[in-house]
User: What shape does this take?
Amino acid sequence: MALLKRGLSGEPVKVLQAKLGIDADGKFGPGTEEALKAYQKAHGLSADGIAGPDTFAALGLPELILLTQGSKGETVKKLQTALGIAADGAYGPGTAKAVEAFQQKNGLEADGMAGPVTLAKIDAFDGMFTPEAVAKSQAAPGTVAAGAAPAEASASAAPKKSIWQSITEFFS
Assistant: This one.
């Protein structure tokens, strides 16, 4: 599951922290957890301090949405409805199989996970997964911030991978 919670670090945590308006150090500690809980409570979400697909959607961070087996919520239900399968909001083996079939049919990497590249091809998510959001969902090793000097930018010309591959655990 692509969730952000206390103890994780990496680029997705920095993106979340910046959106929450707190220091973006990339480490999900107590301050990030409290800011997230406050946001979730204020926006009618489950205030558990864990950021998942529904929280990312509410925050306007579609680039962080990655639905995999074990994901739950309204975003999963929306995907299931769009795929014409039972919409229980729980991403299990049947949903993964339906996503894989959709990916094969649409010339995408058929891995059974629904991230921005796959979701951008589904009409139910029109407007949410723009080309910019899809691009933000990928990060080359050593990615630099937008507006970096050209010499710095060329260092990040390596093949792009999911931003989620930058996630690690840290111990406080």
User: Anything to note?
Assistant: The chain has eight helices and four strands. The longest strand covers residues 8-9. Confidence is low (pLDDT under 50) at residues 141-159. The CA atoms of residues 53 and 89 lie 11 Å apart.
